[in-house]
Model the fold of this input.
Amino acid sequence: QVQLVESGGGLVQPGGSLRLSCATSGFRFPFSSYPMGWYRQAPGKERELVARITSGGSTNYAESVKGRFTISRDNAANMVYLQMNSLRPEDTDVYYCNFGPKWGQGTQLTVSS
Done:
């Protein structure tokens, strides 16, 4: 069974940086075969796509994070990362790792001075 476990959230000041990690396990085929994504959700709002990476390494981003966030993957380690720079208070959310119908438990990012 596929499992996704996020880590790396926390409190950071505006303009700061943070890297989220997603440890994955349980895939039937090599991890490199699967597209992965990061989403975020604020209380009372719908979950929204932040970034996605294909099996071939192509990426796409929400307009609000383009140029600031970078999604990457380490196929040997079955990991997905989200490097977040120039953080803003509006980036405050719970961030989720995603594969198809599978979600991690989420990790909280708070951007505040």
Summary: Residues 30 and 75 are 8 Å apart (CA to CA). The mean pLDDT is 96. The first strand starts at residue 3 and ends at 7.
